[in-house]
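Treating backbone geometry as a discrete language has practical consequences that deserve illustration. The amino acid sequence and the backbone structure tokens for this protein are reproduced below.
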Amino acid sequence: MNGRTKKRMKSVVCAGIVTLVLAGCATAPAAIVTTTYEFIPDQSTLYVSGMGGGGPYSIEGQFQLTVDLGAELASFEQIDATILGQGFLNRQSLGDLFHMTELESTYVSDAQIDFLLERNIPTFPSADIHLGVTFMDDSVHLTGRFSDPLVDGHGYSMDAVAVAMTYYVDAVDGDDDNDGLSPETAFATIQKGINTAEDGSEVLVYPSVYTEAIDFLGKAITVKSAKDAAVLEPQDYFAVLFHSGEDHNSVLKNFVVRNSFIAILLEGSSPTISNVTVADNAFGIAAYAGAEPDISNSIFWNNIYGDLFGCQARYSCIQEAGEGQGNLDIDPLFADPENGDYHLLSRRGRYWPEHNVWVLDDVISPCIDGGDPNADYFNEPKLNGGRVNMGAYGGTAYASMKEMRWVHSDINHDGWVNMIDFAVLAKNWLKYEPGTSNLPPEVSIIMPQDGDRFECEETCEETIEIEANAWDIDGSIVKVEFFADGSKIGEDNDGADGWKTYWQNYTPSVHYLTAKATDDDGATATSTAVQIRIIPIW
């Protein structure tokens, strides 16, 4: 197909898109946001002061918080939280105790909300109920206090942490009749998760190929892959639809979108789209009616009629070289796109999902470490270059690897400068060995831990993963060997994803595990033994 024909066909496609979009009406972004939160029991406590007081008592359950930043108002709704206390407090409703639905907001911002209920008792001003909400990165912190003049002057103080609800989707083992609140009770379809989720919630999608089209329905939620990137491959006109006034709080992240007519369609919406791989579609992303999506850290490749229409991306790999900061137009070097594997080729390590192993390639993708330098990359495996990858796997444990840029103070080369480096330095402080220029390496087993127990069925075919931490203060580690009761059970010559081996064919008994590290000058060191116990269950 020549360039003129491709351009003419692109115009025809875009005209068809306009016809579809104008058939509906975009709605204005909602000014009021209601989010359902769930208390973390071991971080949520209540104390009672005064005669017969006590604590800490745990808090469990859920509540809804509605915030209207425009009107500077906030309120609590649908409080279903209880106190795990003693006596009259046991199973007491937190909402009733703190009169949460009666609280009035006195200060409202996107970082903090203050609530107050005035009891109007002149001789007992501390009876007024104060409650504050502080918004953190992925949770809210609630602090509250008041004194009760009717119960021996008891004072109540609350310090609690709650997180937005998370729903799970698993096309393989899920069922839309489940509640979706755990991986074991996951939904089967993404749309069911979206339909159920409240604003502020997260929908985590487990790896599989999903043949459904999804509509965000105007919700301020995050829909992202839970582990290795899930694949959207719908049979409909589009794969993902934003058309109900979604803003930056509606987030699509870590998906592969392929074999769709339009991968992502937007009308009058401005969601956040990051770390997606949009490949092998008729068209990539089409934006209309003032849509201004924030698109970053993504890859657009081999989309027949074009990648982006009516919008821009940044720090992305775009075959048609659209405008935008930090963009590339170089072949991303997918592993095996014909068979659905869009992981990036890497000389330092690439995940191969078909066999659940990491492999080394002869080349390295230009999209590795090509994302926004300010984006979070900490979930990517070590080694990484300190910057998020482009594409669906960027920012996850399945991102392809690249040699790290070491700093001198990172003695053990694990990517962190911390007390472990200080311990290595202290151990070798003022050490001098005449005639020796090479210091031996350091090695320790970090998994399993000393005293761990494993159950073994009759054939003992379960695999036990053994991992060591190894470093060399004046060189590098070339291999780590693993031993059980003195017999070698494995060897790792790479360490790109940590120094590991996998042990099978063991017997029910007590075993002692050790690791032996060899550095680039041939010096060796052996770890302290870790004792584990294999328990038969037949």
